[in-house]
Amino acid sequence: MKGRSLYLDGVTVVFDGFRALNNLSLVVEPGELRAIIGPNGAGKTTMMDVITGKTRPTSGTVRFGDMDLTRLDEPTIANLGIGRKFQKPTVFDDLTVFENIELALKAPRGPIACIKWHLTGEAADRIGQVMTEVGLVERAHDPAGILSHGQRQWLEIGMLLAQDPELLLVDEPVAGMTDAETEHTAAMLVGIAGKRSVVVVEHDLEFVRALGRRVTVLHEGSVLSEGSIDHVQNDPRVIEVYLGR
Amino acid sequence: MSIALTAPPPSRMRLGIRTGLIIAVLLLAALPILNMLPRDSAFHVSDFIVSVTGKWICYAVLALSLDLAWGYAGILSLGHGAFFALGGYAMGMHLMRLIGPRGAYGHPVLPDFMVFLGYTELPWFWHGFQSFPYAMLMVMLVPGALALVVGFLAFRSRITGVYLSILTQAMTYALMLAFFRNDMGFGGNNGFTDFKELLGMPLGTPSARAVLFYASLVLLVGSMLLCAALTRTKYGRVLTAIRDAESRARFLGYDTTRHKLFAFVLSAMLAGLAGALYVPQVGIINPGEFSPGNSIEAVIWVAVGGRGTLVGALLGAFSVNALKTWLTSAAPDLWLFALGGLFVAVTLFLPRGLIGLFDRVKKGRGA
Amino acid sequence: MRFLLVLLLLLAPLTGRAQDAFSDALPGLGGGFAQQAEATDRLGALGDPRAVPILRALSDGRLLKRPDGTLLIREGDRVTEVATGAAADPAGAEPLRINNRVRQALRGALGRLSLVSPDPAERLAAAEAVFRSRSVENIPLLEAALARETLSRVRERLELALAASRMASPDEAAKRAGIAALGETSSAEARGILLEARATNPALAGEIDAAIASIDRRLTIRHAFETLFQGLSLGSVLLLAALGLAVTFGVMGVINMAHGEFVMLGAYTTFVMQEALRDIPGLAPWSLPLSVPAAFLVAAACGAALERGLIRHLYGRPLETLLLTFGVGMMIQQAVRLGFGAQNREVSSPPWMQGTLELPLGVMVTQNRLWILVFSLAVLGLTVAAIRFTRFGLEMRAVTQNRRIASAMGIRTGRVDALTFAFGSGIAGIAGVALSQIDNVSPNLGTGYIIDSFMVVVFGGVGSLAGTLVGAMTLGVVNKMLEPFAGVVLAKVFVLVAIMFFIQRRPRGLFALKGRAAEQ
Amino acid sequence: MTRPTLTRRAALAGLGAALTAPAIRPSMAQSAPIKIGVLHSLSGTMAISETALRDTVLMMVEYQNSKGGLLGRRLEAVVVDPASNWPLFAEKARELLQVHKVDVTFGCWTSVSRKSVLPVFEELNGMLFYPVQYEGEEESRNIFYTGAAPNQQAIPAVEYLMSADGGGAQRIVLLGTDYVYPRTTNRILRGFLNSKGIGNADIMEEYTPFGHSDWQGIVTRVKAFANQGKKTAIVSTINGDANVPFYRELGNQGIKAEDIPCVAFSVGEEELAGIDTRPLVGHLAAWNYFMSVQSPANTEFKNLWQAYIKNPRRVTNDPMEATYTGFNMWAQAVAAARTTAVDAVRTSVIGQEFAAPAGYTEKMLPNHHLSKPVMIGEVQADGQFNIVWKTPTVVPAENWSQFIPENANRRRG
Lengths: 245, 367, 520, 413
Hints:
The structure holds four protein chains of four kinds.
Chain B lengths: L1 H4 L6 H25 L10 H26 L7 H20 L12 H5 L15 H25 L4 H20 L16 E2 L2 E2 L3 H27 L1 H11 L1 H6 L4 H27 L9 H14 L5 H20 L4 H15 L3 H14 L1
Antiparallel strand pairs in B: 1-2
Chain C lengths: L1 H10 L5 H9 L7 H14 L4 H10 L2 E3 L5 E5 L2 E4 L12 E2 L4 H14 L6 H14 L4 H11 L3 H16 L4 H12 L4 H13 L4 H47 L7 H19 L9 H23 L8 H23 L15 E3 L5 E3 H23 L1 H11 L1 H6 L4 H23 L11 H14 L4 H41 L10 H4 L1
Antiparallel strand pairs in C: 1-2, 1-4, 2-3, 5-6
Helix pairs in contact in C: 3-5, 4-5, 5-6, 6-8, 7-8, 8-9, 9-11, 10-11, 11-15, 11-18, 11-19, 11-20, 12-13, 12-14, 12-18, 13-18, 15-16, 15-18, 16-18, 19-20
Chain D lengths: L5 H15 L13 E6 L7 H20 L8 E6 L5 H14 L4 E4 L3 H13 L4 E3 L12 E3 L8 H9 L8 E7 L2 H16 L7 E6 L7 H11 L5 E6 L5 H10 L9 E3 L4 H4 L11 E4 L8 H14 L8 H20 L4 H8 L3 E3 L5 E4 L5 E3 L2 E5 L5 E6 L4 E2 L17
Parallel strand pairs in D: 1-2, 1-3, 3-4, 4-5, 6-7, 6-8, 8-9, 9-10
Antiparallel strand pairs in D: 10-14, 11-12, 12-13, 13-16, 14-15
Helix pairs in contact in D: 2-10, 2-11, 3-4, 11-12
């Protein structure tokens, strides 16, 4: 797979005079797994919104390969191969687990295509594979609305996998998970990286440490520090931001 | 793995509904035949019942179309009556052109209202309506085009929920005001009446009533099958997904504007067809059909029946209208209390409508 | 008729020669419409002040005629004979009826006769009446009146009346003076007089045209201001109707389709107050102001009942609330129809809300509209104050912004919800008091305002009272500006379509809350 | 027994309601009552006008029964509510005729409601008495029109305005609600005015929607139009609810009847009951009946009404009188025909004469319209009308106006 890199340069987002992102620059190479940490209000979610087209930057460039993401809307960006998992798991409650993954499965997305679409054996296999991967085979025909919190997180990750994206944006994937689940998730994300680029936003430093990759610290909308987990943990500015108040 | 490969088995509930529907359709289909029986027969059904049921069938199609937009795609249109009325007007224009020189003033081309309002020639948009295929095309195209424009602008700007409802309400209100103007060339407040024939068949005869009744029934069954088939495809699931979490669907790569637009336009066309069959049966179309209250009532039929189920829309349209027909005669001063009370009770106690009630009772029994 | 003649003959020796003409004219008042008009003209020309009470009585329907033709005059409970002044028995006497022709004559005659009245208000009215009746004979009267008159506003009117009367004079110079004086005004009536004169005086056409052009310049400005006022007035009605909705919908997110019915209840409260206070002398004139708190309370109580009884079960489901309140609206409307009847109810306007007020530049504004404009701004001010500066307002804002935290801080959110909804409904009730002054008090009153109200709130920006104000006023003014060109209906349709397009551009309205908070 | 599932029953529920309805069909006993259909809106926008007509019919039914009914049979009213909804009018008309099998129907107010039920009455050969003044241009063998045709209201009123007594108007403002009655009436009036030498430059015509409430702009424009040096008058065909705000604006902008008289064709005692009439004294209305008419028949009518309604504030008006007259003519025709059968009564109604409360003997003409007197009344401070002019004799109705040129080549029969 010929990978594309994600490239943010000088991105600024202003809401009503408040600078949610301030001249943020960041590069994620193909196949890289990048963790992003930062205190509340550091601009992590806004950064994801900008990449996925939900929010238009006030100024700056956002590119994926040679595509200018600031001109595209969410579905187009998603179809370019950028998948996103939300902080609060959002799945389609009225649909079953199977159907949720079916919708995420890479396929033509237009209305007519959806009407004509029928479940091929290949597609069913792929859905089964994803459900196995996230451990939800048993619940295939249960509506997603009745799943537990952890299962919903898994389902959403499964949907992300079914989308077969080139770049995954994962927002706090282990919030509310048990330790075992957290470990499993970390392992899985590491496994995914390499084939695809992954950006993980997380509070949980232990989890970030478990990932063991390059870390970016955001603060007040711009990059405060970048490097290995040990490097950033010893960075006085980071200590100041995390502990100083 | 096999469990994942198969689609879920149809529930007993669904089968029950299907049988019920088939019986209901057969019973409906029998009405015009029973109407032909001698008057003193115990099974004789009066013209009134046939004509009023024909009207309800058209309402049921309107409810169905609304359920597709609201129950599945989450577009609560408070202006669906406008599509219904536009379809009706297109059909009305055809019927007016068919009157020809049989009008009171004997003008070969102009309808009566144009003659006494002093028109000297037919306005341009009236041309072509003498042809039945053209009129039928317009019955679907005009509501469809309006839905396309309004829907495109609204969905593109991410106008959803309450805002969309108010917007569509304003749409039908503006149309009502516009159609009330006599200068528009649509007969103003009086609209169109005094139709003579359709497809060479004189209106107001039992056979014409039966033909229109069956045409409506065919439309109803056809729309039901279409909607049911559509909602069972992946497209139906995409609509449900959009309804429940639109932004999630967008991040999955679904261009929700296009999907909603498709459903909305289709729904508007169905409503237009319903309106087109409604007009020759009630014998009048006028701007009152655009009144916002009518559209809200249609939403209430769906809510009473149970939204997002298709069958609920039919159930609601038939039961509320039957109740209204009965009460406006049985309790002319009090029927608004009964109907208003029903709406309140259903929203409070039956959030899933009558269908939900049956469901609950059934579950209660099974347990 | 013969009897009358005999009566006149009997009376004649008792009165002098000047009084002969007076007494001769009197019986004509009891004749047919044409005779009445003629007799009135004669009495006016005589200039005898004794005619004033008689003509007033005829104008007010207090002049009675016995079957034998005797004219009687009623003053309160006292009935006297016109000719003798002796007390008389009104039994069998019928009040004399008049028509517009007689009314016109009466106005001219009374005007002429009261030019010398000691009451300045009467003189002003007289000048106005003479201006309208304009005849050559008035010229000397007006000149005499002007010589005595000291009050400038009465002088102004008298001069105008003089100018108008001069137009009827055969004297060229007098006409020229008249044209010049009329040309100085910004009065549409003066323009009418000039136009009329133009047809009969081709020699003066040039001067008349110049005078008309000069009036037209001022009239254009005046009309611009009047259109602006009318737009603001329409805006104030929209504002009143929408303000309650801006609270219940804008702040609480509840779609209340019964909002219009609360407005209607407010109007009916005004009616009930008027009837209840009708026979209480001290309070009767105050029934309208007193209706404001009463309507607020009635509508607020209904609102609170609706919220506590029904709506609170549906929070977070705005669309269901919409359907529920639609049903409630149907029931309220029918209940009022059964209780009060389907017919319109009469709510009369107090004197200070009737008539027209003349502002500088000759701009005419109707008093009731002006009051409603002022009233709507006052209600807006109070609403803003209640939300900004009271404890209740603080709690309301807290609950709106974060229900859970507000609750954790000890705010009883249920009570705040009920109060907020009652508050919004109460404002709707107040709107009903104002609408009772310009619209029908009927069960359908509210239906006509509900959609406009929603449009105002959405256009202005949900949750922003400033937006509601600007939205309402903009819609009002734009509507009135379009009206002369497009007609009433199309103007409204254009405005609706424009709003629909505007909402596409700015889904959150004029005064949108921006940023993250607004995204939810 | 196989138990049907509940869902199946659910699907049948709507249908069930439809099927049980025929069971209501009455069994014809020997002295079955004569059924009188009452088809007036009791809710919605038209309830404001139509409820009084419902009451009038009910009053007449009660009164007729107190006199021993008709043909020895009792009268029974069947009241339905078509709710100001025009298709519902057609449905209810069919229900009255087919389900309740009424012998005669009194109903409708607006033209559109009449147009909506007309095909039903023709198809099922029913009989409808329509009591409201209307635009004419219609004729149906199943409808009897007891209100005025345009020549019995509009044209005499305008003639009056142009006369010396009426003020000698030379410029006319035609204000109306935008629907067929004002449009047609104004077209007829324009033809009439042109024939009297008033050109189109001296005619202003403007239409407003139903329930229009903001009259500021229009009244201002009327004032401007009136100040062009010619005596101006307003002819109002404004309907229903819109009148109250219109007259309020007229009063507040100081338009006095002496300067610009306004004659209305749709404003009667009932409408004035909702307005403070003191500023409006002298404005006019043209009708065929006023409550203030002095005649023994009117005294009887008003007494009957008060005895029935028991509310001194409730007034009588022209459409009520037309309902009353129509009912009496129908009753006379039934008595004469000795049956309620529609065809027999139809022939027997024509030529019936009745001493109407208007103070004249009115007659049902072969064109199904009445000959009626025309009266012009001035508004008084007490909300009543002072009759300032009336025709010396009754005027026969011309439902096809001579001022509409197309009527020349109208198909007859």
